[in-house]
Design brief:
eight-stranded mixed beta sheet, about 15% strand, Spore Coat Polysaccharide Biosynthesis Protein SpsA, Chain A, 7 helices
Length: about 260
Amino acid sequence: MQKKQSKIKLSIVIPVLNEGENLKALIQILKSVVDYGNEIVVVYDFDGDNSIPVVKNLQKNYPNLRLVHNNLGRGVINAIKCGVKSAVGKYVLVIAADDIGSLLSINDMVFLMDQGCELVNATRYAYNGKHIGGVFVSSVISRMANNLFYILSGSSLTDPTLGVKIFNRSQFNELNLESRPIGWAVSFELAIKAQIANWKLGEVPVVSLNRIYGKSKSSFKLKWLGEYLKWFWFGVKMLPFFKGKRKVLVKIPEIMKK
């Protein structure tokens, strides 16, 4: 793909755990759909991860594809911190390696960042967004939990638990993220703390398509419940004191308009 900008504007951070098969499709699609100078930062926890040889092979054709070893400790939160530290783009997009469908909304998310947003959240549950695939029980729990949180907390964001988010790299450390490395709980924390910090917010609907290859790592697990509930109640207690439902800029991709 010919870049429309030679300067890297967007760093795409992808935490991985044996996602070799999914990365083959994800990286090629990214290079086809992203309209901005970008780099792809794949963050792995251990040397035996099957993502590593796949990335090394793809680097022959994608010079801005990089591998970063997560040396802060396993888990998504540490992978994101390592990825952001290594990133050079003005904006950072965090995305899961198995969520192919959300890629089609990236340009619209960057558009909102260019309009002054400081965090743009992808949503499956508003503005014609969809959640396809995955474990049925997990999908039901996710929808119910996000809807309940939206009602009880006065959250400005309709799908704060989804891991697809773009933010300013320079502002990331302001939020002092401290989730335990359990699932994607850090994405929930990030969405809550960005609202407490009064960041300017945006949302873009996505068609979240879970996992073409491999077994899902995001199915509901009882041990995750405590961490997600901790941030659920934190948001319910704190967000009403921080202006409640602020105005959120919304950009609907052309492909999703009726």
